[in-house]
Amino acid sequence: MTSASPSGRRTGRPRSAEADRAILDATRAALVELGWGKLTLGDVASRAGVAKTTLYRRWAGKSELVVDAVAALFDEHLELPDRGGLQADIEGVVLQFAALLERPETKTALMAVVAESTRDDALRARIRSAIVDRQKTLVLLGRERAQARGELPHESDPGAADRNADLIFDVIAGTVLHRTLVSAESVDAEWARSFAALVVGGLASVGTLP
Amino acid sequence: MTSASPSGRRTGRPRSAEADRAILDATRAALVELGWGKLTLGDVASRAGVAKTTLYRRWAGKSELVVDAVAALFDEHLELPDRGGLQADIEGVVLQFAALLERPETKTALMAVVAESTRDDALRARIRSAIVDRQKTLVLLGRERAQARGELPHESDPGAADRNADLIFDVIAGTVLHRTLVSAESVDAEWARSFAALVVGGLASVGTLP
Amino acid sequence: MTSASPSGRRTGRPRSAEADRAILDATRAALVELGWGKLTLGDVASRAGVAKTTLYRRWAGKSELVVDAVAALFDEHLELPDRGGLQADIEGVVLQFAALLERPETKTALMAVVAESTRDDALRARIRSAIVDRQKTLVLLGRERAQARGELPHESDPGAADRNADLIFDVIAGTVLHRTLVSAESVDAEWARSFAALVVGGLASVGTLP
Amino acid sequence: MTSASPSGRRTGRPRSAEADRAILDATRAALVELGWGKLTLGDVASRAGVAKTTLYRRWAGKSELVVDAVAALFDEHLELPDRGGLQADIEGVVLQFAALLERPETKTALMAVVAESTRDDALRARIRSAIVDRQKTLVLLGRERAQARGELPHESDPGAADRNADLIFDVIAGTVLHRTLVSAESVDAEWARSFAALVVGGLASVGTLP
DNA sequence: TATTAACCGAGACGGTACGTCGGGTCTTGTA
DNA sequence: TACAAGACCCGACGTACCGTCTCGGTTAATA
């Protein structure tokens, strides 16, 4: 008897991990060269040296593939180094996020998959778990640090705390996104300083209210 | 600036204004039913009772058509009623913008055309002039009113004033956009109040700094 | 009023007769080069300088297209020159038919479409009207001539006459087909003479029976 | 002559004879259900409860497999019972051959593999040895019997005798094939009688010629 | 009022990509 | 070594849209 792995497939040739990697790399390269609109799955497959069927066996379509391809970039490039103070931490994450959004593959892909996700719940869930929620942990971590430093009070009502974190997350991510992709202007250190000051000021004033 | 465009055509049958209207209406209807991704120009044409030729004579492609179709909604539905105070004005515009973004045609279209525009300068310019700049005037108007009420100081340096308005615009538009489309959560009066308080608090604290 | 062609399409761009011709030519060329098995409609289209859609607008599939393409060859190359006697006429048509079946495009195509037609009634009808029935008229014409010459009696029962013609048709066409494609041996003048003698002898002996 | 083919493999697991049988049965079943055109080797393998590898180890492709599958039917169902006279013997073999060709698996397969064989010499050889030559022995046997009965003379020139047998074979097999598959009409006893009469009459008249 | 140039609908056209299917090969674990 | 399973590469399938191009026919400003 032995084995009987509960869910896993047991027989047949196993899927090639090499192929997975090659496909995601090819997807990012194609995004850089062609952008979302002109990217085709046939082209991705041939760049990856892989048959189209191999690609479709793993991903249901362009959107799902691109989400996974750019999610890896978010994992690699977003972190929250401790800069010693709340405003400096915010500046840091803003600059990091902006740098990510200015990469050609991210810039062209992120808005597109979000647009698709407005009509596709499964895709939205995938974006949320692969990209959005991971960014949000940075906000939570930043708050913890600020509270440890005494820069922010400990919130007594946990519901209010969550709402507050969500708000701050939308403010930071949304503002940088809009600046970068809609206004199409670059984020430099000075802009990051101004924006972080605004947020910190806002937090301070809100914190004083009951 | 009367009429008589010097090089304009003079003879022949003029274009049907009826057709323009029918096409834009059909575009919005198709966006609601199908979303950006599944919208096809052939379908728009047949909904509008119009030949594809007629459509292509007026718009270069899907993106341009959709920008014009949703721009009309922005023109119709965005304004800045005077609610008597800066924070209330911000709350009002936030709720209005959120309501617009929750319409199915806007939700699916706006991110998509922005995504396309990351690779197409002409499209970006069209979006800017047809949609973005018109929203920005609301920010400028709001500032004027707040200054007239004495809620905000007059900025002496015009460059700094512009930068400030741009920042506030990115904060407001970006946050609402992110909340609505990325976080996919609705904007209610309470959220609008919290967010507006944050912005006003931030503005106050920044205003006090040199 | 005037026109109103009852069934014909009136509006829109008319179909290109040039395309029809180019597609059939390309089909024959591809049959020669590749044979039935390796012939693809995409390749035919590109040889013809035509889009695949143009091809599919006219023909439902490979079989239908090939039937039409080879039918044209039958029309061009089968006739019944009067050689002055029944046996000589049969020899002539046998040689002609064999020459047709030895062309590479016919050889590879005819059996293939007949094979397909065993499962497709519409295809069988198409083959019958485009190819088979036209050959059969040669048999009927040959009989008329032979009767005019006094070589064959006039059949009094029309049903028996039809059955007889069908039989002779199956004998002639079938034997040549089998010799050429199944036995895969060539048909020369001597073989044609032997075969025609057999048929004429058989006819004579049958004719003497009640 | 038992086994022990000199160069044959000796070690390892021997091939399953069960699998061979299951594959050929599955092939015939699939031919009946799907016809040649829609028959796929993957489907045959799964019907047979066998991996595709196992199938490809034994046959090079669809054509070869189908030739073997239908050849078995020819072996089973063709024989030449002695009916006491040349014409009756011919009628018998005609009816038998026609019955075979009216089976769905034979009907759809035979023309298809012959069509393939026009471009594939190895396949043609396989068809010849597995199917055609076995039918031809019936013709030779029939001639022997007729000569024994005194219905046909002994041919002095062996070359002419071979040519004659080939001709009669093409006439009989070809005519039945054409009647059944091209004309798509059934072969009944009366048609068989007419046709056999024609052949016997032809043979008689030819026999009298030098 | 007649001319005439630009418009209009319909739909065929050459393309490109789609997502699926089948062919034949290869790579697992098991017998 | 064979076997079942199933992933692999390849190439064709038939469809859908793209944006362009004829068609025959209409319409309004101009001459």
TrEMBL record, chains A, B, C, D:
<keyword id="KW-0804">Transcription</keyword>
<dbReference type="InterPro" id="IPR036271">
    <property type="entry name" value="Tet_transcr_reg_TetR-rel_C_sf"/>
</dbReference>
<feature type="domain" description="HTH tetR-type">
    <location>
        <begin position="17"/>
        <end position="77"/>
    </location>
</feature>
<feature type="DNA-binding region" description="H-T-H motif">
    <location>
        <begin position="40"/>
        <end position="59"/>
    </location>
</feature>
<dbReference type="InterPro" id="IPR050109">
    <property type="entry name" value="HTH-type_TetR-like_transc_reg"/>
</dbReference>
<dbReference type="GO" id="GO:0003700">
    <property type="term" value="F:DNA-binding transcription factor activity"/>
</dbReference>
<dbReference type="InterPro" id="IPR011075">
    <property type="entry name" value="TetR_C"/>
</dbReference>
<dbReference type="GO" id="GO:0000976">
    <property type="term" value="F:transcription cis-regulatory region binding"/>
</dbReference>
<protein>
    <submittedName>
        <fullName>AcrR family transcriptional regulator</fullName>
    </submittedName>
</protein>
<keyword id="KW-0805">Transcription regulation</keyword>
<dbReference type="Pfam" id="PF16859">
    <property type="entry name" value="TetR_C_11"/>
</dbReference>
<dbReference type="Pfam" id="PF00440">
    <property type="entry name" value="TetR_N"/>
</dbReference>
<keyword id="KW-0238">DNA-binding</keyword>
<dbReference type="InterPro" id="IPR001647">
    <property type="entry name" value="HTH_TetR"/>
</dbReference>
<dbReference type="InterPro" id="IPR009057">
    <property type="entry name" value="Homeodomain-like_sf"/>
</dbReference>
